[in-house]
């Protein structure tokens, strides 16, 4: 049985085979030129879908990296401003010690007051610090509003209590702004403050806490009577006021007093009606502390009463500056912890970037050794097909007849 193959069939089969080989060769050449083994989703639907997921994750990770750079800039601006405030407050404490040395006259105290006014302006500038984008870092959410403005008694705050946050990782946000009211205005102290209204030589030491469980948080008045030989301690926070200690003997050489978990010392000659007030520290604005200290330095301190009031003002200012310094250092510690966390997240983000790049490479990148081998084989196959087609196309009866 013989099989007849028409000339038309030979041509059709030959052209079709060469077309297939040319298509395969062109596809391999395109893979080599692009370095990708997947040229369209139809080449490998599963790998294409996985590559799309990894690419999206890689882009999100890149956005987190951008946010971390922004967070770093903001935190560095905060740290720089807070470092300036720390140095400033430490300098103010030195001035307070200098003012309380007892050898300065009124003119010299006014020199210190003048220097403190300059420090006040410097503090105001630090509190109104802007970041690299021109936004106020101590204004809460009101980043375009200058947070602090000087007033006769201190400063007014125009910001809010908000704290801006940036998403720096998939499940982590970092605070990149500061609540200026918390940093500079609402400064809490663990101590107790005293004020005095005395005509004699009596003084009171700074109260200390001896038993925190007994503290009431009330305000007390220590009132002298009977020619300054006795005193009463009155709780003025109750209604009506309650006498806690009544008609206590007073020794001007030194009298320790304990009441409701706190203790203090009284000394010096007292007159009838001389009064010391002890109140919880509460909140104290650092700007108000500056103003009060400047006022005390500019006030006369010639009489015994004025000198005692001046010494008391210095003690109060020193305690308030200590509280403000502790508050600023606490804020700096929080900022430093955030900066450290951002650095750690940066390292983790870089590791993820490498992981995503490796996964994409495995899914998409071409194996050049295999591709070059395939390309060579396809070129040889195409050449063989072309040569075979030429020979087959010449196998005709007419060639024999001729």
Could you give the count of β-strands? 15
Distance between the termini: 28 Å
Overall form: rod-shaped
Please give the radius of gyration in angstroms.
42 Å
* Strand line-up across the major sheet: 6-14-9-10-11
CATH superfamily of the domain at 55-188 and 320-352: f41 fragment of flagellin, N-terminal domain
Regions with little confidence, pLDDT below 50 for 5+ residues: none
CATH class of the domain at 55-188 and 320-352: Mainly Alpha
Number of helices: 8
Class by alpha and beta content: alpha+beta
Largest sheet: 5 strands, antiparallel
Q: Judging by the overall fold, what is the CATH architecture of the domain at 55-188 and 320-352? A: Up-down Bundle
If you average the pLDDT, what whole number results?
83
Fold-level CATH name of the domain at 55-188 and 320-352: f41 fragment of flagellin, N-terminal domain
Helix and strand sequence: HHHEEEEHEEEEEEEEEEEHHHH
Strand proportion, as a percent range, falls in 15-25%
Could you characterize what this model shows?
It is a single chain. By secondary structure, the chain is of the alpha+beta class. Among the domains are: 55-188 and 320-352, f41 fragment of flagellin, N-terminal domain (Up-down Bundle), CATH 1.20.1330.10; 192-280. Helices cover 54% and strands 17% of the residues. It is built from eight helices and 15 strands. It has a five-stranded antiparallel beta sheet. Strand 3 and strand 4 (172-175) form a beta hairpin. Helix 1 (7-34) runs antiparallel to helix 7 (368-393), helix 2 runs antiparallel to helix 3 and helix 2 (45-99) packs antiparallel against helix 6. The longest helix is centred in the last third of the chain and has 61 residues, at 304-364. The mean pLDDT is 83.
